[in-house]
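User: Can you model how FE3-S4 cluster sits in this protein?
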Amino acid sequence: MELTQEELDILNGKEGETKAKIMKTVVEFGDVFGAKRLVPITHEGHLVTSFGIGLIKPLFRIMDEIIAAGIKTVYPFTIDPRPIDYENVKCNVLNKLIFSKIMYSQQKRYEEQLKEIGLRGENDFSCTCYMDEVGNIPKYGDILSWAESSAVVYANSVLGARCNRNSGMLDIFSLIIGKVPEFGLLTDEGRKADYIIELKTSKLPEAQILGSAIGLKVMEDVPYIVGLDKFLGTNLDDKTKSYLKDMGAASASNGAVGLYHVENLTPEAKNFGKKLIKKDAKIYVIDDEELERVYKSYPVLWKNVNAKPKLCFIGCPHLSYSQLYDWSKNIICELTKNNRKKILVKTIFTTSPQVKEKFSKTELYKEILKTGVKISSICPLMYTNNPLAGSKPIITNSNKLRTYSQSRYYKDDDILNIIAGKGVK
Ligand code: F3S
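Assistant: Here's the modeled complex, given as structure tokens:
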């Protein structure tokens, strides 16, 4: 990689040994991917590593070293959700012991470290940092150093910012240097589509299944989706953005999609249209049958596939305000229809602290809490990712949570039926 004199100076230790090591890591990372140079980051950061897992000792050691050297990130950053919330997501004594003494034993210390190097605020723990309420919203063309896969794909696709799918720690290191290696999704060529997705369904697909189908087919390639604007329209309003958030997260977790274009809808597709498609792009047709085939292919990892669900998570990635509102309304409606007051399965909505705060000022908030639903800002994956919680029959409408845990995926209508209606059809 060609480095400027200033970058070389940092690499050679002019700004201290710690910064030199950080620069070396960023440069070697860029070299691996054939980057020719470093380019400046132009917007706030977002970190993926939000959990103080005791076992990742090198992380805390590196953070201590950064702090001791007096180094801070060039922009403040938000970060993924916390792994625990004892108030809203109750744990039994054994679970609590495992969380506090073994799994997340370093949470407090780690959060202190994050504050020291540039964490934006006490409440800035959410994977949907790009929501209006949270306010870490990159502009079109901004260069980012983010790593959370669902946030990266959203920033690239829906906002038109530029960010690679970085790993944890690389997001912090680049944010300290203030620059990222230029390759992949940072380049015009890397943002061109390798796949055309021809959507031929009879209705708007479930976002989480459409994203899953796309991810499983294209893996890390860039898809250009034709036909989705027929259902979503051409404006990025709140509902459409929520849909794209969920579709993108599913494509990023079921495959490794970092950017998608939706014809007539996402900003680059609006600006450049079919010019974004590579000459040799492959075609993948998605119709109703194909979506059903993908849905039916999900394995059920519960010990007893007929077990009664014990817990339900809705909101991975975190729910937007309109989703929180709609889910609350729908559950209350379904309960009323079935002459019930309480939900049948313990259900947790997960959303950012800022969206929760806004929602808590509404009447609907009080009503939904009365049904037994809890609203939390944790990451459900961090909660389920241990042998005790993981062995529970948990259901979810999140394809990401399904992919990375033993939780069982259901479509939205089925979830509604299970928690507030007559059970699975
Ligand atoms: Fe967000 Fe955790 Fe899901 S980070 S996308 S809630 S796995």
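A couple of observations from the model: The pocket of FE3-S4 cluster is lined by residues 80-81, 127, 150, 249, 316-318, 350, 379-381, 400 (CB under 6 Å). The first strand starts at residue 38 and ends at 40.
User: Helpful, thanks.
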